[in-house]
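Journal club prep — side note

Before the paper discussion, L.F. wants everyone to see what a predicted structure for a comparable chain looks like in token form. Sequence:
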Amino acid sequence: MNTNILNESKSKSNADNFLAKVYMWMFSALAITGAAAWIFATNESLTSLVYYNDPDTGEIGGYTLIGWISAFAPLAFVLIMGIGYRKLSKSAMQILFIIFSAVMGMGLSSIFFMYSIGSIGVCFLVTAGTFLVMSIIGYTTKTDLTKIGSLLMMALIGIIIAMLANWFIQSAMMDYIISIIGVFIFVGLIAYDTQKLKEIGMSAEAGGKMEIMGAMSLYLDFVNLFLFILRLFGGNSD
């Protein structure tokens, strides 16, 4: 009995230490993304690298070539880190994650032209509070969230397809519905990913590289939840 209690206590301690490192990397990545987004939004020289000015209005227009690269590069980083997980070293994973965070900031700098600082701040705080609550639920619940996680992943694929379709349709109502569903999906994924990472932390899989992959999962949950909340409640900068 005592041995079982000691083993359980040790496993919980390992999970706590693992999650602490995951959160450290995740919050560091968010800080890098936020700083990069602000710098690229407020420095005219850097802004011009990512966006072109509308010649008629003088306002920020669409993406430049570098802007389009910054928009799609994060997906490439996720694929490289996922596919090359076993071959890449811990240091390489860390460097890629840092660069990924900065490139994400470049692409997300557009929010400062679309929404007011106040709206961005409020939506960020709402996201942070929601993330905290759902992480606690994911960590403490005794319910196995595996089936829910599988359903959420399928729903995520569906919403990505819907977003691509709406890119052509340009339906405001469809965009609103997608945003609502997106919020629910990522609220659920935060709890699911937290529980999954807790279980990894209690196993032999936990390690330096897994900390980075775990941080990326939670980072993407946080950023996507923030963006969907911003789309719903952010209004615009006008």
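L.F.'s comment for the group: The chain has one domain: 2-233. Keep this in mind when we get to the figures.
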